[in-house]
Amino acid sequence: KITLTQVGQPATVSEEFENGVLGGSSYLENAMGGASGGNAVCLGSNGTVSLKMVSPKKASYKVFVHYFGWDGQTKYNYIEIPGHIENTLVTLTGINEYLDLDFGIVSLDEGEEFEIRVTSSWGWTYFDCVTLIEVPEPESVSMECENGILSGCILENPNSSASNGNAVNIQQSGTIIMKMNIPKSALYKCEVRYFTWGSEEKMNKFGITGILEEKEYNFAGTNNYETLDMGRFELPAGEVEVVLSASWGWTYFDKVTFTEVI
Question: What is the four-CA torsion angle of 142, 145, 146, 150, rounded to 10 degrees?
Fold first, then answer.
């Protein structure tokens, strides 16, 4: 015989950015007339917007940020969910359409109030709404950079919020090699937590041996530890080797995290 079991629909929650708190140069505008609630928040050159939401049940949720950018004008801005996802510099592609940015997965308790904050780096991006959709708990693995194989680097903690009490100053020509154990073959999002002094951006190299040839990434200048999204990679189960090396250098690396994309 065949037994059919009814499966409940995943929990969802959504909110419009125009219902949030605008700061700096942010203003309301319905770019191209396609905003879901009749309006969107443009950051301008140095704007912010913060939005408070409530979780409908205890679960893991995938976070989607609905936004608009003008054709050919890729922008970089910061998004964070305090207590869940650190301030992260994200890439926002402009193609004259509203798009969804997959901002990662958060685990929330039932009735938990949480906040989403968007802060201008480049600015001039239109933020429409945020939607959270319940998903299974993803696999995740992290490693502290100070536990890697260091060459031409020194351990330093210039900011007390390093995740394990220390970070690696890559100096002018240092290299960090990290051997990380991936729990299963899957698509993973990779994030690097880092710190630089002041607003000056630094170019440094990142690679995954046999999967991603080392290439330069832009680590935006910051006076706090922040997270850079390095991309998504198909990884095999078992050990993978991550390499961080100096191009510009003089950047403090705290940890590397792989999170399964669901």
Answer: 140
CA distance 224 to 221: 9
Using CA atoms in the order 57, 63, 66, 68, what is the torsion angle rounded to 10 degrees?
Answer: 160
Strands 113-119 and 75-81: antiparallel
Nearest to 48 by CA among 79, 91, 14: 79
Q: Which of 255, 181, 187 is nearest to 225 (CA)?
A: 255
- One-letter amino acid at 34 equals G
The 8-class DSSP code of residue 226 comes to E
pLDDT digits (tens, 9 = 90+) for 101-132: 999 999 999 999 999 999 999 999 999 999 99
| C-alpha closest to that of 257 among 157, 161, 134, 163 | 163
What is the rounded CA–CA span in Å between residue 161 and residue 163?
Answer: 6
Q: Furthest-apart CA pair in the chain: how many Å? A: 68
Distance between CA atoms of residues 202 and 196, nearest Å: 8
Query: What pLDDT is attached to residue 234?
Result: 98
Pairing of strands 85-92, 226-235: parallel
* Token couple for 29: 């505008």
Q: What is the mean pLDDT of residues 2-29?
A: 85
* 121 vs 91: CA distance, rounded Å: 11
Give yes or no for residue 40 having a pLDDT over 80. Answer: yes
20, 147, 233 from 49: Cα distances, Å: 6, 37, 31
The per-residue pLDDT for range 153-166, each reduced to its tens digit, is 999 988 888 998 89
Where residue 65 falls (left for φ over 0; alpha for ψ -120 to 50; beta otherwise) is: beta
Please tell me what DSSP assigns to residue 221.
-
Within 10 angstroms of residue 58's Cβ, the number of other Cβ atoms is: 12
Helix (H, G, I), strand (E, B) or coil at 223: coil
